[in-house]
Every structure is written in structure tokens, then in C-alpha cells.
């Protein structure tokens, strides 16, 4: 996002990794907003406006105090002195006055994000104090956890580059369950959702006062399947993710070690029941494997049909019947080749250049057993949708066969296959495919189309939604041009 990166790039004092560190902060600060029950804003110096807001996050554990979007806007005058003080002191600064805004009492803190002895930016927290109720133990614990994380930010200890940044589904969040450990891995506090998650695993006792590592070890049935990162996560020693599975329940765990200048004094462990997610992922894997197997079996069946057609053609006495069976055999073999390609991957697209490269040469060779026919390719098809591959491969097969049998008409020559992907002014992506030969050219009088060309026209217009046209080729011969839109695929 330009608003985030442009001011950072203009800051000459940044060293290696500083900008990435701030990006890591913004990528993970939803957790802090949820723990602090507060909105967070990230401020960066601006030569004309004092500071400019680079990012803003709202808590999911309470209501927001900022309903409007102020990212990219200059800092308010009443907030700038507090941010200036935090920038200079490199310590957390709290507003001495309660800030009343729109009938809401706000407590504002400014937290400098310091790395390698330099303040890189300032995070402000904005918490609503207008509620008259006493905060619960959960809320007090959450706020303390948020303070500890932000305090680590002033020391350059958080965010940690070793933290997981992968996109695997099911990453635990604050609301899913939180467990706070001391330096020895003993549970100091477990949120109700955290307790429920471990109860589903089979632990029936209270977690507080017990070693989370021992609790986890007691739940493991088959230790051969244990993630090797699990011991370091449940003791809070490393900022990693892990998973534990027991009694059909899968629990995703994430540890955030808490440190000060001297030592690690505890850890936060976020936990989430991901049983349903993992079940669905397994279903998808099973379905993908089933689809690949179906493609493989269809390919085998089609190859069997092609072999039967070949055997039948050898028994034919009539040349016309033999030629018809051979043409049917080629068409079946072309479809089988597409299914073979689809059976080798999970993607919904096909590398059409790899597929058609073999098919193009084979089509020309089969159609010209007694001719010297050269094949040349130009351009790239690229990745095409799987439902595009079969009809397009059949069309090219028919047109190449037609070019050899009728265009070259029994003599030596060359057949070209040219692909061109382009983009129109309106953004629509087009694919233009040209099959050309240096043969006898188009006939002077219209002729009746055979089955092959009827198949081609039907596939191009109905299956591919494109157009096809025949033209004389410069230098002699014929060129067939197919234009297809890729916008809806």
C-alpha cells in the first residue's frame, strides 16, 4: 500500500530490515488491539504535517473509537505533543488528561517502536474509559499482555522476525483462546475459550497452576505423530506455531515469548480448535486425489478406445472406412492426452504449450506418413483453463490434419502453429491462434465441408466462444486464424 511505504522510503535514517520490521508489526498488531481493547494507530514523521497516519486497526473484542478512516491524514494538534514526547524519550508515554471526544472518555498512550537504538515510528493506543463497570480478570490480563508486547516494541524485541508469517488457515486469534505462562511454563491464566479448547482434547482439570507442557504431553496418544516444534511452543520458548491432535480434535497453537532487557519472563500461547478446518482440508485433498484418479482412468479408457479403433481399422477393406476410423482414433487420442495432463496436477489450469507441443508434431506425422512435413511453432499459449484445453487441442489437431492432407496435398511442406496473447484497450485478454501451411492455397470455388471442419466450427463457436476465418497466406498457402476471449475463463 502506497500510503505505508512511500513515507518510509523517504526516511534516510532507516537501516536494513527496519521497513520490514514495521510491516511485520502491522501484519500482527490485530492481536495487540484485541488484547488492549483499544484502537491502534501508527504514526510516522512528515516534514509538513508533523506526523502522518500509516495504518489503523480496530479491536474485535470491543467497539471502535474511530469510525472514520484517517490513514494518510496528518496528526491532530492535541495528539502531537504526546507523540513527540514518546519519540524523544523512547518510552511509553500516557496522556495526563482524559481525552473526551464525542461523549467518550479516551485514555491515550504513545508507544515508540525502537529498533537498534532508533525510533522508527510511534503507535498510539486509544481506549474507551466511558464504561462504568469494573474490568473483569480476563480484561485486566488481556491489557497486561498488550502492555507487555508494546513494551517489548520499545526495546526492539517485538515483533520477532522468527514469528510465523505463513498463510495456513486456522492461525489462532485472541478470541479463540489465550493462555499466559510464566518463565517456567506454568499457566498463570487461561481464558474460558482456552480452557474449553483443552477440554475438547481430553483434559478435564483446571489449567492454572499446571505446566502446559505436561498437560499437553498427557494428552498425546501417538507421540510418533507429534510436531517437533510442539515442546518449544507449549513452553513458550520460541515464537512459533504448532498443532496437537487428540481424540479427533486438532488444536492450533501459537507462542509469543515475553522478554525484557535481561530475560524471558513468560509467554502468551494462543490456541484455536481447527478440527473442522482440517477435516475440510482433508476432504479437499481427497477430492483432488479423486479428480486426478478420474482423469487418469478416463485417459486409460480413451487410450483403450483408440487402440480398439486402430485394430478395427486394420480389418477394414474399404479405404474410406479405414480412413474414418483412423480419424476417430486421432480425435480420441487427443482428448486422452489432455486428461493425462490434467491427471498430473491439482491446478485448474494447464500449461498448454507443453501439451500442444507433443500433439502438434504427432498430428502432422500421423497425417503425413509418406510426406516430408516440417512443423514450426511461434509464440506462447501460456496457462489456459482446463475446460479450455480439450476443445482447443481438438481444433488444432483437426486444422493441422486438414493442412497436411488438403493444403499440402501429398507434397512436402511446412505447417506453422502461432499463438499470440494480447490485451485490448478495455482490458480484455485475447488469444489468437494461427495454423498456416505453404501448400496449394484455398480453392477457387466453395466446397462442401467435411466432418473435421464441421467439428472445428462447432467447437470454436460453441465451446470456446470464439471466431474462425480462413485467409490466403502471404507467400502461398492457407492461414486459419482463431480469435478467443479469455476474459470469462
From TrEMBL:
Domain Histidine kinase positions: 293-488
Keyword rRNA processing recorded: no
EC number: 2.7.13.3
One of the protein's GO biological processes: phosphorelay signal transduction system
Reactions mediated catalytically: ATP + protein L-histidine = ADP + protein N-phospho-L-histidine
ATP-binding among keywords: yes
Enzyme class: transferase
Gene Ontology MF annotations: ATP binding; protein histidine kinase activity
Keyword terms: ATP-binding, Kinase, Nucleotide-binding, Phosphoprotein, Transferase, Two-component regulatory system
Name of the protein described by the UniProt record: histidine kinase
UniProt organism field: Pseudarthrobacter psychrotolerans
Amino acid at each position: 500500500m502506497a500510503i505505508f511505504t512511500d513515507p518510509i522510503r523517504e526516511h534516510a535514517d532507516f537501516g536494513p530490515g527496519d521497513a520490514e520490521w514495521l510491516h511485520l508489526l502491522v501484519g500482527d498488531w490485530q492481536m495487540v488491539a484485541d488484547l488492549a481493547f483499544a484502537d491502534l494507530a501508527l504514526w510516522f514523521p512528515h516534514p509538513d504535517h508533523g506526523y502522518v497516519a500509516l495504518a489503523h486497526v480496530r479491536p474485535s473484542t470491543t467497539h471502535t473509537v474511530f469510525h472514520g478512516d484517517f490513514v494518510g491524514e496528518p496528526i491532530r494538534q492535541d495528539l502531537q505533543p504526546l507523540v513527540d514526547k514518546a519519540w524523544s524519550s523512547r518510552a511509553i508515554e500516557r496522556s495526563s488528561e482524559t481525552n473526551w471526544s464525542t461523549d467518550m472518555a479516551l485514555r491515550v498512550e504513545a508507544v515508540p517502536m525502537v529498533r537498534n537504538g532508533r525510533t522508527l515510528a510511534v503507535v498510539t493506543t486509544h481506549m474507551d474509559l466511558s464504561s462504568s463497570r469494573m474490568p473483569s480478570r480476563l480484561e485486566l490480563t488481556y491489557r497486561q499482555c498488550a502492555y507487555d508486547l508494546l513494551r517489548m516494541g520499545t526495546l526492539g524485541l517485538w515483533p520477532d522476525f522468527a514469528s510465523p508469517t505463513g498463510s495456513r488457515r486456522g492461525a489462532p486469534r485472541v478470541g479463540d483462546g489465550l493462555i499466559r505462562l510464566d518463565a517456567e511454563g506454568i499457566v498463570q491464566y487461561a481464558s474460558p475459550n482456552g480452557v474449553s479448547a483443552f477440554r475438547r482434547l481430553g483434559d478435564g482439570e483446571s489449567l492454572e497452576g499446571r505446566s502446559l507442557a505436561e498437560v499437553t504431553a498427557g494428552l498425546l496418544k501417538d507421540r510418533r505423530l507429534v510436531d517437533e516444534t510442539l515442546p518449544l511452543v507449549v513452553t513458550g520458548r520460541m515464537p512459533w506455531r504448532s498443532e496437537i491432535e487428540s481424540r479427533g480434535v486438532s488444536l492450533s497453537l501459537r507462542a509469543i515469548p515475553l522478554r525484557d532487557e535481561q530475560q524471558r519472563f513468560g509467554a502468551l500461547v494462543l490456541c484455536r480448535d481447527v478440527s473442522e478446518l482440517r477435516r475440510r482440508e482433508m476432504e479437499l485433498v481427497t477430492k483432488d486425489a479423486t479428480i486426478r484418479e478420474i482423469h487418469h482412468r478416463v485417459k486409460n479408457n480413451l487410450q483403450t478406445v483408440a487402440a480398439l479403433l486402430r485394430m478395427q481399422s486394420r480389418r477394414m477393406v474399404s479405404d474410406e472406412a479405414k480412413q474414418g476410423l483412423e480419424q476417430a482414433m486421432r480425435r480420441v487420442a487427443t482428448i486422452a492426452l489432455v486428461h493425462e495432463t490434467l491427471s498430473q496436477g491439482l491446478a485448474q489450469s494447464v500449461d498448454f504449450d507443453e501439451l500442444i507441443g507433443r500433439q502438434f508434431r504427432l498430428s502432422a506425422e500421423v497425417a503425413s506418413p509418406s510426406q516430408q512435413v516440417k512443423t514450426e511453432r511461434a509464440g506462447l499459449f501460456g496457462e489456459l483453463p482446463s475446460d479450455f484445453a480439450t476443445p482447443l487441442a481438438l481444433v488444432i489437431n483437426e486444422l493441422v490434419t486438414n493442412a497436411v492432407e488438403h493444403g499440402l496435398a501429398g507434397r512436402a511442406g511446412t505447417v506453422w502453429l502461432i499463438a499470440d496473447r494480447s490485451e485490448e484497450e478495455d482490458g480484455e485478454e485475447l488469444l489468437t491462434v494461427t495454423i498456416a501451411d505453404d501448400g496449394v492455397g484455398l480453392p477457387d470455388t466453395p466446397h462442401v465441408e467435411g466432418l473435421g471442419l464441421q467439428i472445428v466450427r462447432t467447437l470454436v463457436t460453441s465451446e470456446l466462444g470464439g471466431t474462425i476465418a480462413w485467409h490466403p497466406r502471404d507467400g502461398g498457402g492457407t492461414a486459419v486464424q482463431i480469435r478467443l476471449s479469455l476474459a470469462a475463463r
